[in-house]
């Protein structure tokens, strides 16, 4: 299939998506009746690095919720209030001056939020129960895709600048972290799996480990592009995270394709997980699984050691993982990845 055929097909796909979505109400940017957020700061966290702390409170004995504001992110770009969830090691508050490594654990797209890994299917607190590890779960946007959007006419979405230039130093300012490459890991599911690899490729000096659970790792795959376009339109955006999507104007998509930047991961340990879909019609998981396989091949071509597991569809996998694009598999993948992650981090 030549480039003209691919371009025509992608154009048709986007046109159909736009036509269908125009017939449906756009709910993402509509206002709703929500209770006002709390105003207390139970953790005593300080504002800084462009982040204003609006509130903090304990969700559980180990997990806190922090409301934040930054001029880099339009509040409407987030599903719900803009927050960061932090899960602490079990003995953090009784360990004196001990410093801990940090995992930045990213959520998926569309309906995802900082809540996803704790109260919306994810079991991050349970999985990390015995790990000397701080887990930071930030908001990453309805359709943020871990990039500073080229077109911000509908509101600020400078996600990479927020996460890298503001959030990481803010966490190091407020918590007892090991504030260096050997003390940081990043991982995520779906959109967040892309984000983990993308940030590790852009800033290999910051992360010792990057993990992807069902991550979309090929921005030149037509199905992945169509999904990102669909998510954008569904959420009321008529520009896209990486700019124009049609050749020859899609240079930002191509330049940020993880498959083309595998060599940047030479100093980062990479772990890739994906399933084969719950059945042959599970196009989403099968597509991201293929993209993860392609990234593994690209790393092999560069002679870069890494871990790759296509775990298929089960049966017999922990957490009831059926190979689908769901938390049964993402919890399983995270739990399996954690020991290897800790092996690559400095920790007490």
Word description of this protein:
The model is unreliable at 1-33 (pLDDT under 50). Helix 1 (3-22) runs parallel beside helix 6. The protein has one domain (39-343): Rossmann fold (3-Layer(aba) Sandwich), CATH 3.40.50. A nine-stranded mixed beta sheet has the order 1-2-3-5-4-6-7-8-9, sandwiched between helices. The chain has nine helices and nine strands. It has helices at 3-22, 116-119, 124-127, 159-174, 191-202, 222-234, 251-255, 283-301, 327-343; strands at residues 52-58, 63-69, 83-87, 102-106, 134-138, 184-189, 209-213, 269-274, 307-310. 32% of the residues lie in helices and 14% in strands. With 348 residues, it is of the alpha/beta class.
Explain the layout of strands and helices.
Layout (H helix, E strand, L loop, with lengths): L2 H20 L29 E7 L4 E7 L13 E5 L14 E5 L9 H4 L4 H4 L6 E5 L20 H16 L9 E6 L1 H12 L6 E5 L8 H13 L16 H5 L13 E6 L8 H19 L5 E4 L16 H17 L5
Parallel strand pairs: 4-5, 4-6, 6-7, 7-8, 8-9
Antiparallel strand pairs: 1-2, 2-3, 3-5
Helix pairs in contact: 1-6
